[in-house]
Amino acid sequence: MFHQSAKALRRQFGLTGTEAKGIVRACSQGSQHGSSLGLGVNPKGLQACEIWQMDVTHVPEFGRLKYVHVSIDTFSRMLWATAQAGEKAAHVVRHLTACFAVMGVPQEIKTDNGPVYTGGWVHRFLQMWGVKHVTGIPHGSSNDRKSS
Description:
Number of helices: 5
Low-confidence stretches: 29-40
Strand order of the largest sheet: 3-2-1-4-5
Order of helices and strands: HHEEEHEHHE
Helix content: 25-40%
């Protein structure tokens, strides 16, 4: 698994120290070192590409590409993020296509129940790839996410 340090993120993306540390902390929330969530709250896969979580976060400093779509494998904790120009289905599909190319195709993806994830295009895309979609995270909630 590959992790970038806060210093590397600051240099590569021109982030402030606080922003970069926040991203590193978010990635580490699912790890053994920083987890405060029990397995009953958010099931973890028993192997890579079993269960992923996905969400989008906003990084205004990225300008037009401020919508950062993030997917994390709950077993390996491998994280893939793509900066997109929006939060529509086309952006989600573009992000997932990149994730599948890099991380493989998961058995299941867990998202919030936001309209972009529950709409037809994303549903059809996941169905085409044989990926089960679970919307167990309330839209707008940050209590239960590993990828936010």
